[in-house]
Specification:
With about 260 residues, the protein is an alpha/beta fold. The protein is built from eleven helices and eight strands. It has helices at about 35-40, 70-80, 95-105, 125-135, 145-155, 160-170, 175-190, 190-195, 215-220, 240-245, 245-255; strands at about 5, 10-15, 20-25, 45-50, 90-95, 110-120, 200-205, 230-235.
Length: about 260
């Protein structure tokens, strides 16, 4: 697994496929880059998937990272440059990772060909739900069982047990204060005005049963973007890459013209 050096911190990336259409996948708070595995497996042969572990997730070193979205976007940008990836690419972000992608696309538009955001709202639509998520991260212990409960709370369709266990184990390894920091930064950061500057063609993806990001939240972001379409995946909650990897893959392939 390739390692990029960003500000004296090791950042882990992975590549799958040998095609020329490069797609960067940026995970959310649920776990590291492993959350994309099922969806990536069936991508067309002309694709090359690049997954990245944000600081403190997966195999990436945390350093002093606290969850700040702009800082996360800077790390992603520097990591791409460190591996020689300076040409425009397709970009996919989920939840918190979607906000990282929004920030990156607004600051470095020449690096983004097309942008797809899953379960992403550019503001915190439900303060009560935010406080509940934060409360679930309180306490002295953070383990696989708690991570599993966190993930399950956002799912309508459960993936295979072995895959869910692997994702839960990956999430359990993340410092719970970092997870709390990411949740707090996600709640505090309002990127609606940031979205107004983005001309990149953008796809907004929402699961029909997503309780964290509702239709109104999607429309608020859609109203700010200049070149945008939205799709809803039926019967899916907050984690389309886990719940409906085949359907998500189809929509991304269509939007990216793969």
């Amino acid at each position: 697994m390739p390692i990029a050096s960003v500000d004296n911190r090791k950042i882990s990336l992975d590549f799958q496929g040998v095609g020329t259409d490069r797609i960067l996948f940026v995970h959310g708070i649920t776990s590291g880059s492993g959350v994309w595995n099922l969806m990536i497996q069936g991508l067309p042969d002309n694709c090359r998937a690049i997954t990245i572990d944000l600081p403190g997730f997966g195999n990436s070193e945390r350093g002093g990272f606290s969850g700040d979205i702009e800082n996360a976007a800077t790390v992603v940008h520097k990591a791409l440059h460190s591996i020689g990836q300076t040409e425009p690419l397709f970009m996919v972000g989920h939840g918190y990772g979607g906000l990282v992608c929004l920030n990156l696309a607004s600051r470095f538009p020449s690096h983004v060909n097309r942008l797809a955001l899953a379960s992403t709202a550019a503001f915190e639509p439900d303060p009560a739900a935010f406080l509940n998520r934060l409360a679930n991260l309180d306490g002295d212990t953070w383990d696989k069982d708690k991570a599993n409960s966190w993930i399950r709370a956002g799912l309508v369709e459960l993936p295979a047990k072995n895959h869910l266990d692997a994702i839960s184990e990956e999430m359990a390894k993340v410092d719970h204060d970092l997870l709390a920091g990411c949740v707090q930064h996600q709640a505090k950061k309002v990127l609606l005005e940031t979205a107004c500057s983005i001309e990149t063609p953008t796809l907004l993806i929402r699961g029909s049963e997503d309780t964290a990001v509702g239709p109104t939240d999607i429309h608020a972001l859609k109203a700010r973007l200049q070149n945008v379409e939205t799709i809803t995946i039926e019967g899916v909650g907050q984690e389309p890459a886990l719940e409906a990897p085949d359907e998500l893959r189809v929509e991304l392939s269509r939007f990216f013209n793969l």
